[in-house]
Fold:
Amino acid sequence: QSVLTQPPSVSAAPGQKVTISCSGSSSNIGDNYVSWYQQLPGTAPKLLIYESNKRPSGIPDRFSASKSGTSATLGITGLQTGDEADYYCGTWDVTLSTVVFGGGTKLTVL
Amino acid sequence: QVQLQQSGPGLVKPSQTLSLTCAISGDSVSRNSVAWNWIRRSPSRGFEWLGRTYYKSKWYSDYAVSLKSRISFNPDTSRNQFSLQLNSVTPEDTAVYYCARTSHYYYYYMDVWGEGTTVTVSS
Structure:
């Protein structure tokens, strides 16, 4: 049972847009920055977003994110088959004193 | 370009100690304020942060509360690497283990990850 809640799966057609939600509480998302990771099959996670809405160098602007209250959202536009992966949100939880993650969302590009 | 290379056994017997090493290239384990993390992922628990170690005038380590009694991290400046030791393992510790960097201990996102090591706890 993950502390942060994500939908298990989302899907959309190539070229379309998709959003992935991440729901938490006042002790985690409500009080800290959110990060997002992409994990392609058989590979290590890759940082997509840090400090809730910033992209590391090399991450295309098709990936964007926002945070509002105790929820965060990752958006991906211009979907490509190469975007098929698992996506995870993460943040610090001040009550649990640990980094917490969502259970992950599997993106299928139909 | 920073790279993390993991090594260690893939099979550990119950009650024994799990030991993994993360060798760093392109950065320094003792660079001031950079944090070096261990994370694991299992089908039952998803991603679980195990803790981190960092140098800020002296060495600090933060451990996940649930593992505090069994876990330790050891930075090795001579080999530019850091290691994880998890004692008294059980099958519940079976997971893919990752090392990862955080650019500043003030933050909690991981910007560089190791490739992962699958560890099975079984007799």
In short: Chain B has no helices and eleven strands. Residues 75 and 82 of chain B are 4 Å apart (CA to CA).
